[in-house]
Structures are given as structure tokens and as C-alpha cells.
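Technical note accompanying the year-one report. For the benefit of new consortium partners, we illustrate the data format agreed upon in the data management plan: each record pairs a sequence with a C-alpha cell string. No post-processing was applied to the example shown here.
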Amino acid sequence: MSCGEPHETECSEVLDHLYEFLDHEMPDGDCAKFEVHIDECSPCLEKYGLEQAVKKLVKRCCGHDDVPADLRAKVMGRIELIRSGHSVPDHDLVTGRPADAPSASSGDAGRGDRAAGSGEASPA
């Protein structure tokens, strides 16, 4: 998206990094550039306002759940890998299985000692 007006910082750059700006995860110099851009660009200001409202709504509705410490550590580890430019492992953070592997609750997983393939339904 571009508003068609010349800006020191392009609309696409602002929108690509909008959540970093909203989350205060960028250097102060970049924040200052983004603030100037948002102040002078009404389409980007509108998008910023919308994303800010969504973020507040999510926090209000979902912000009370505690995140398990091991999951938090795995997510933070993955973020650090991405920030350092390393490749990200292709496995699920929670289960450790490949992201495209079936879960234990699907298919025949966890059938235990039940007879497989009998094809007969037990009466209810």
C-alpha cells in the first residue's frame, strides 16, 4: 500500500514493520521515523490505529492466560534464531514433531491393545 505522497520512509516499510513499532521492539531512531511517517500519512495512520485496536482487544480478551515456561522458552529461542539469521527448525514448538506430521490424536495413533482393522462397530 502507498498513499501516493512522497515520504522519507516508504509506506511499505512502515507496514512491513508495524508490529515491531507497536510492540516497541525497534531502535529509537526507527521509531522516530515511523512516528513522523504515521503523523503525515493518513492511510498508514488508519492501519496503525486498526492494528493498535486489535492488539488491545486481544490483550483484554486473552491476556490473562499464563504461558507455560517451557513453551515460552521455546518460542523465545526460535525468535533469537530468526533474529540472528539462523535457519529455523522445521518442527512444532509444542510437540517437537515435524510441523507437517500427524498429531497423536489423529488416525490410528493411541489405539493401544484394541484390535486394528476389525471393521466392526461396538454397540453403544
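Partners are asked to follow this layout when depositing records. The mean pLDDT is 76.
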